[in-house]
Design goal:
This protein has 8 helices and 4 strands. By secondary structure, the protein is mainly α.
Length: about 220
């Protein structure tokens, strides 16, 4: 980790420079990438890096209720949750899986992340509108992971299906093929220009639900 810097808080990756701090937007995906590199190349330094970044997040960014930094964003909740899930599978340390469940489940249950019971809109910029596209596949991964708690998997499954049902009900079929997703899946798109990020998030949800149902109907 050539960009990481260390102080009395530990070792973490800066957002851009040291003056920008070490936030979850960098360290959560950094932790996940390190685990994936370890799985691909089987080099211990990558696993060490993943554990180091995990420790930094746990000690400095994670809140007791499962928020990964403030405010909680689906992007950072998802990437850290998936990093924890994958760390469990390479180390067999159950604490990592419990953490994965905690941060993913927080996103699906906290009013900070929801609006009327489904994932809220997080903003209209390209970055913000694509956050849910990152969260969805990692939530689905946890649902399909038989090492996760059954109660968590069951509640997450219902939650994701409700999000998909809401999105489906708010797609204006009369305008097909110009049938666009809104930033918030509980609203019908209105306007002249659709957001690419919002479409990516909607497509991620539809694809994720399809993958979940296919896996359940055709278990390995």
């Amino acid at each position: 980790m050539t960009r990481a810097w260390t102080d009395n808080k530990g070792t973490g990756l800066p957002w851009q420079t040291e003056s920008n701090g070490r936030n979850a937007c960098t360290n959560s995906p950094g932790c996940l990438i390190a685990v994936k590199l370890y799985k691909k190349f089987n080099k211990e330094n990558y696993l060490t890096d993943a554990k180091t970044l995990y420790k930094y997040i746990e000690s400095n960014l994670l809140k007791d209720d499962g928020r990964v930094e403030e405010p909680p964003l689906t992007y950072t909740q998802g990437t850290f949750g998936e990093a924890c899930r994958q760390l469990y599978h390479v180390t067999q340390e159950v604490s990592y899986m419990r953490m994965a469940e905690k941060v993913i489940n927080y996103t699906a249950t906290s009013s900070r992340c929801l609006r009327n019971g489904i994932l809220r809109d997080e903003g209209t910029s390209m970055d913000q509108s694509i956050f849910k596209a990152v969260f969805v596949p990692y939530a689905i991964n946890l649902i399909l992971d038989d090492k996760a708690l059954s109660s968590i998997r069951t509640s997450l499954r219902s939650f994701m299906k409700e999000n998909a049902k809401t999105l489906r009900n708010n797609l204006n079929r009369k305008k097909y093929p110009a049938m666009y997703c809104d930033y918030y899946w509980g609203s019908i798109f209105s306007g002249d220009v659709a957001s690419m990020g919002a479409q990516a998030s909607g497509a991620s949800l539809i694809e994720g639900i399809a993958r979940m149902l296919a896996s359940e109907n055709n278990p390995e």
